[in-house]
Fold:
Amino acid sequence: MGVPGARGTPPPEIEKSELFAVDAYRRSFDGTVLEVDREQNRVALARTAFYPGGGGQPHDVGTLRWDGGSARVTRVKRDAGRIWHWLDAEEPPPASTEVFGELDWERRHALMRTHTALHILCGVIWSEYRIAVTGGNMEPGRGRLDFPLEHIDTGLGRRVERRINEEVDRAREVLVDFLDRSEADLDPALIRTAAGLIPREIDPLRVIDIVGLDKQADGGTHVADTAEVGRVAVTGTSSKGKSNKRIRIELRDPPTAE
Structure:
């Protein structure tokens, strides 16, 4: 497992088909085409390591290869119970074709580091203010989160940046957990993630735990410990309305994982 120390058992269908959910470091995979949508030039696969986007994290891109062809994967998205891969190709491979998928790893790893940095930011704000994140977005190497803060003082950005990098230096382990919904509903640490807004049929919940700092229901990809994030800079704080303040961050260090 790419993110070590998983404490819960993933649903068998997730473990078999959504490789990104159980091994964020998997860069390539073998799969089979389940369905073809020629009108949109996309294919659904029996299993995939491509993250389909969600929770503010963009989808992965990369390449699919098969006997007699290859294509750039330009978009990935969940749709009607399938994870679809849009291809930059004149003709997608037919159903039942065996394929080899390979991620754009540099981009994926940057997103993993960025996503983890945003969780650290969330944990820092929670520990200081006990308030939940209300929105966010990211791209490789940078992102932002919104919080229901009443005001922003001039030193907020500097304090938050210092605290984020202290948590990076602590090399906190990042764990993937799968919790029964009944157990998750009783966990006070998950209240700030608005777990109640997640459909009840999602059971168990996939949870990302930065041990000792932040614990949230989350479907995205993350690095194995906070040290792998590298240096983080707070590049801006701004007001987006009453009780809605935005904090922007950027990664400053090159990646450490090969």
Observations:
- Helices lie at 12-17, 19-22, 105-129, 156-169, 181-185.
- The first strand starts at residue 28 and ends at 37.
